[in-house]
Design goal:
This protein is an alpha+beta fold and about 160 residues long. Helix content is about 25%, strand content about 30%. The protein is built from three helices and ten strands, in the order αββββββββββαα. The strands form three sheets. It has a five-stranded mixed sheet with strand order 1-2-3-8-9.
């Protein structure tokens, strides 16, 4: 699919287009997407996977700066305060790339710099990180715990309860 987002000049209309792109991509990733009624919610979508739900704020940018992209992560009154959403979905329009970033990683900032080609960029781990919205990070932690218990049993730690 060709990305014509750069041709959309009005920022509000471009933001609505980016939200539609997010809904499409999230559905392709196997996520259920819900939009809150009205304009008063402090997030754009609820994303559901299994029993997990997450509030998502969608932002987009086409502003290239020194090899990266500057993306505004603020509301109309300045940087987000409190706990308005769980994840930011930042869309780099020219690159057709998404960053899925936990909100605590940029709290109280007005903008973030995203460098998709820089190997050691601050937000590199969140490039196309749709698994965060599926909650698969928790699965990895459980797998580690299972591996520890297996190793502990093999080492005889589990035998303590048989005394």
């Amino acid at each position: 699919m060709k990305n014509n987002g750069m041709k959309i000049k009005h920022p509000k209309r471009r933001g609505e287009w980016a939200e539609l792109r997010f809904m499409t991509r999230a559905a392709e990733e196997g996520l259920q997407v819900s939009k809150p009624y009205g304009e008063m919610a402090r997030y754009d979508f609820i994303v559901e996977h299994g029993a997990r739900c997450a509030r998502v704020q969608v932002k987009s940018t086409m502003f290239k700066d020194r090899g990266g992209y500057s993306c505004s992560v603020r509301g109309c009154r300045g940087p987000y305060e409190g706990d308005p959403f769980d994840f930011l979905a930042a869309y780099l329009i020219p690159e057709d790339l998404w960053y899925i970033i936990p909100a605590e990683k940029f709290r109280m900032q007005g903008s973030i710099a995203l460098y998709p080609r820089l190997r050691k960029s601050k937000y590199k781990a969140y490039l196309e990180a749709w698994d965060l919205l599926r909650g698969t990070v928790v699965d990895r932690i459980e797998a580690c715990a299972e591996e520890w218990w297996t190793a502990a049993a093999e080492a005889g730690v589990g035998q303590l309860s048989q005394r």
